[in-house]
Specification:
Helix content: 55-70%
Strand content: 5-15%
Number of helices: 9
Radius of gyration: 18 Å
Largest sheet: 5 strands, parallel
Shape: globular
Strand order of the largest sheet: 2-3-1-4-5
Length: 205
């Protein structure tokens, strides 16, 4: 029996870096953002519906979704965000469930930033939340992604507050420090996950 782990948290809280640490330690990993990328590539399952909603202005020269153009619409308008989510979320959930169902190792972890917002928490055995202070989130968004302060605040406001996600998770990893501190936390979490997976297997035997 595979232990199903979801990694969530706020934007710019270190979910990707943390999950890469787990992957290097041996955890099988899937990122919901990568699933979305595949769905929005030329020929992807989400392209026809998104083009029908917003026209060719959200498509790039190759016929895939222009993520920057779509992103500008999504983060500026909650109604547009709901329309896009209604297209993407069922496709993403189906892809993740299919991946989890495939034979694999002791632990499978999926990075799902909007886990609680979309109501998928019950699909997972362990939920890990990456959390940072809002000041750190804004600084990272402006420094790493080149956003203005207003754009950064829009991104943060579009999601459930990190504190609420943390309260609904099994484990919380606080990431206001440096990358090495996060790597240490990842090693601790990995040991916990492997112990928990062993318990699941023995219970299932």
């Amino acid at each position: 029996m595979t232990l199903r782990v979801a990694i969530t948290g706020g934007i710019a809280c270190g979910k990707s870096l943390f999950s890469r640490h787990l992957a290097r330690l041996g955890v099988e990993l899937l990122d919901a953002d990568d699933v979305v990328h595949r769905l929005e590539m030329p020929g992807g399952a989400a392209v026809p519906a998104l083009a029908a909603l917003f026209g060719k202005e959200v498509l790039d020269a190759k016929g895939g979704v222009d993520r920057q153009a779509l992103g500008a619409k999504v983060f500026a308008d909650a109604a547009v965000r709901a329309q896009v989510n209604a297209v993407l979320h069922p496709l993403v959930r189906a892809a993740i469930r299919a991946w989890v169902a495939q034979p694999g190792g002791a632990v499978k972890a999926a990075v799902i930033p909007l886990l609680f917002e979309v109501g998928w928490a019950d699909d997972w055995d362990v939920i890990i939340c990456l959390a940072s202070s809002e000041a750190v989130q804004l600084e990272r968004l402006m420094r790493v992604r080149g956003l203005s302060e207003e754009q950064a605040r829009q991104r943060v406001a579009a999601q459930m507050p990190v504190a609420e996600k943390a309260a609904r998770s099994h484990l919380v990893v606080y990431n206001d420090a440096d990358a090495e501190a996060l790597a240490r936390e990842a090693r601790k979490v990995y040991r916990f996950l492997m112990e928990t997976a062993d318990e699941y297997r023995s219970r299932d035997a």
